[in-house]
C-alpha cells in the first residue's frame, strides 16, 4: 500500500480484526472505490494483491509493481475504461 501511495495514488485500508473479509469487500464496493485490493497471508508472502473492481469483477493476483505501472499507464493515457482493461 505504501508503494501505491508513494507513486501518487490515493488509497485507504481496512485493518479491523472484527470484520470478515467478505464484509470488508462489500463495504469497499458500497463506498464506490474503483479498485479493491484483497491482501491475505498468501498475498503478503508473495508481495501481491488480488485486484477487484467495485462491480465485483475479479482481475486476479498481481504484483504491487505491476499494479503501480498499470495505474501510471491509466493516469497517463486518461483511460476511461480502466476497470475493464486492468
UniProtKB/TrEMBL annotation:
It comes from Lymnaea stagnalis. GO terms for molecular function: threonine-tRNA ligase activity. Pfam families: HGTP_anticodon. Residues 2-71 form the Anticodon-binding domain. GO terms for biological process: threonyl-tRNA aminoacylation. SUPFAM superfamilies: Class II aaRS ABD-related (SSF52954). This is Anticodon-binding domain-containing protein. One of its GO terms (cellular component) is mitochondrion. Keywords: Protein biosynthesis.
